Amino acid sequence: MLIKIAAVLILFISYNAHAAFMQFNFTGFVSSIENNANSEFDEASLLNQPITGSFTLDLSREVRGRLETGWYWWGQVEYGLPVLTSQLNLGSTTYTLANQGIYNAFEDDFFPEEHIEMYNGPDYDGGPIGDGEYFSDFARFTETTSQGETNLTYDLSIYFIDLINDFLVFSEETELFDKQPDFSQPFSWVDVDFTDDNQKGSGTLRVRENFYPAAGGFERNIDSTLGFTLASVNAVRVNSPSTWMIMIIFCGLLIRKRVTVK
Description:
The chain is mainly beta. The chain has helices at about 1-15, 45, 170-175, 245-255; strands at about 20-35, 50-60, 65, 70-75, 85-90, 95, 105, 110, 115-120, 125, 125-130, 130-145, 150-160, 185-190, 200-215, 220-240. It has 4 helices and 16 strands. The strands form 3 sheets. Strands 1, 2, 3, 4, 5, 6, 9, 12, 13, 14, 15 and 16 form a 12-stranded antiparallel beta sheet that branches. It has a two-stranded antiparallel sheet with strand order 7-8. A hairpin with a 5-residue loop joins strand 15 (about 200-215) and strand 16 (about 220-240). Helix 1 packs antiparallel against helix 4.
């Protein structure tokens, strides 16, 4: 297993100098908090607080997906190497999802559980369909002791759509062969009016912690969801992920232990 993980690290480093990545930086504010088990997020102190974050997409790895209509494409990364890393900044706390725990030793495979979508308006069946994108990232931390196993998971996603501006284009290959759309298109999206739906965006961060006692059974320690409204998304092309992000990926795969949130 260590050899396989080391090979993954070498792969990341080998294309680091020449691969291209797209970074989707977003801003917004906390709009809802739901605590189904314990209180990971405090509603009284966090509601309406500003958030920032980003999704970084590896452009060198095409995601297999399908064009559902002439304006909507979706793709899922269920197996193999991941294509996304992400983070959410909430006050002094940063949640980083950098492919931790996506390797399953029993299956000897990677399970990133990532999802990306693109919408390319302007209309469908006489109704408005805007330009927009969706990203969903996942991380898992597992800790095993003599008492049992603890699984801590993070799910981060954002979605935005614009019925006014036409800034995304599907290539001919996408339209004919279900190829991945061109996610390298730069843009700057801003919701100029939160009172209407002409431009809208939202996101969630769900934190779950489950404990499986060695004697059997199941205990849910945490199940909390932070909802936020997007104010802006800025898409820029970058040459490579930072060195610290590569090290996080390696350490997450190698150690796969409970996260320490900074």
